[in-house]
Structure formats: C-alpha cells, structure tokens
Design goal:
Helicase, Ruva Protein, domain 3, Rossmann fold, two-stranded antiparallel ribbon, alpha/beta, 11 helices, about 20% strand, 7-stranded mixed β-sheet, elongated, 2 domains
Length: about 280
C-alpha cells in the first residue's frame, strides 16, 4: 500500500494517526523488501508482528511464514483492517497490547518464534524487556526503532551512550544494527531517523554470574551517577553493611579501579563484582 492508497483508505474511514500511540506507518516498499530479506523467515515458522497497522509488512510476512499473528493495539485500525486480514489463511489479527500478550502461548511445541515490529519510541525498551522475559520461546526480534536508542543498545563499554540498558540487553541477546531507515520512509514523518535492529536471543547469558538480580542492582546504581567515579554511587547506601572502604577493597579485589566510571566497566566486570558482593553480604 503506497501513500496515495493509504490516504484514500484513511479518507474512506475517517481515520487520523494517533500521536499518543506514536503512529508512523511505513510507506517505502524498498525498505519493506530490505526488512524481509533481513528476517530470513522459515516458511513453516511462526511470526509475531508488533503493530500491524495497515498491513504494509503483514501480508508480505504472511507469504513467507507458516503463521503470522498481527498484534495491533488500535481498535480503529483493527476495525478497518479486519476484513482485509481475514482473506489470508495464515494471518490472524490480534487486537491487544503487545506488553500483555503471552507470546509463548502462540508458539508451537518447542518452537522459537520470530518477532518483528515498527515500535514507537516510548515503548521500545518495555517491548524489548517483554520479549527477553519470554525468551524461552522467542528466537529473534527484529524491530524498527529510533536510531539513537539502537546506538545505546549496541554500544560497547567506554562509549558515552553505554549504560544500564546496554548491559541488560547484551546480557540476554546479541544485538546488531542492520541498516538505517530515513524518516521520509514513514507517514506521518517522524522527527528522527530509525534503523532496523536485530536481537538474537542467546541460549545462555553472555556472562556467568551467580545472582543476576544483584548484578543488575549494582549496574543500575553505578549508572545512576555515570559521570562520577564508580565508588561514589555504590557507596551511597546501596548496601548498608558495605562502607566506602569496603567497596574499595571489593573493587580492587575484582581488578576494577575505584576511580573508573560506570561506563568503563564491561558485563564481565560487573559479574565479578556482583559475585564478590554476594560472598560478602546479603543485599
């Protein structure tokens, strides 16, 4: 569906994009084709599409997989597109919020689902976290998100945009920026460029740590004052039984310079520190 057809459909049904839902619909067929090539779909597999919109990706996805669940939150879009979607045997339109959908309930026994979506910025991180929570049945996630967020997700230690989100996602997935998508590929046109980001779910976390929750508590605290030496936020009553001297000893034991900033530590560094803290005190 090109822009002319899209506008005509909207006119017939009196539809207007909802800014509150961050609706920017893909209209560039070349971008659509590039996305399809990047997905490498299994013709017998299951795909979940987040935000089916007016079917620019949906029908092409359905042609290349065994079953497509097109999840759409906007009831008005579901009402308009319902008759069109019912014409495809292997395409099921699901009127729901993706953050409330049980992805594993849609998978066949032992199947790892492919997830695709064009995600509004304001829910990008919650959606990724939701997919990670269901990683036992999600094999890979390909999402169109703002390039700025994608840069944060894939950034390595030492980068100025490396942060707690980078650590969390890189712990469970192998993230990769595939290609940039210009803002004029969407209508209405967003203010910034996007990109296609792939997240391959890892069979095991990227580093070994005894207590994942403890490690992420330390990471969040460290990045809460990212411009300061790491010992400063960690000493700020994160663990009442560890004083500043105790943190210096722990950091040195883990071969981490207490004068380093949070962004200079790798996941392996944080894992070693969490294990050391766990042996010292209960949080």
């Amino acid at each position: 569906m090109d822009l002319r057809q899209l506008k005509q459909l909207w006119k017939e049904h009196g539809f207007r994009p909802n800014k509150r839902l961050g609706q920017n619909f893909l209209i560039d067929k070349n971008v659509r084709d590039n996305i399809l090539r990047a997905l490498s779909l299994d013709e017998s597999g299951t795909v979940v599409e987040i935000g089916s919109g007016f079917g620019v990706m949906s029908f092409a996805l359905a042609e290349r997989c065994g079953k497509l669940f097109a999840v759409e939150k906007d009831s008005r879009i579901c009402e308009i597109m319902g008759p069109y979607f019912r014409g495809a045997e292997n395409l099921k339109l699901v009127h729901a919020d993706i953050l409330e959908v049980d992805i594993c309930g849609l998978a066949k026994q032992g199947e790892r689902i492919t997830v695709f979506g064009n995600i509004p910025y304001y829910i990008s991180t919650p959606v990724i976290e939701r997919m990670i929570e269901q990683r036992r049945c999600v094999g890979s996630v390909h999402i169109v998100i703002q390039e700025e967020l994608a840069d944060r997700i894939v950034s390595p230690p030492g980068s100025r945009v490396y942060g707690s989100v980078s650590c969390y996602i890189q712990f469970y997935t192998r993230p990769k920026k595939l290609f940039r998508i210009k803002k004029n590929s969407f209508y209405p046109r967003p203010k910034v460029d996007s990109c296609l980001l792939s997240l391959e779910m890892l069979p095991e976390p990227s580093v070994r740590v005894k207590d994942e929750a403890l490690m992420f508590k330390i990471i969040r605290k460290a990045f809460s004052q990212r411009r300061k030496k790491i010992i400063n936020p960690l000493s700020d009553r994160t663990f009442t039984s560890i004083n500043r001297t105790g943190w210096e000893e722990l950091l040195n034991r883990c071969r981490i310079d207490p004068a380093n900033r949070a962004e200079n530590l790798s996941l392996s560094d944080y894992a070693r520190l969490a294990d050391a803290v766990g042996e010292t005190v209960s949080p």
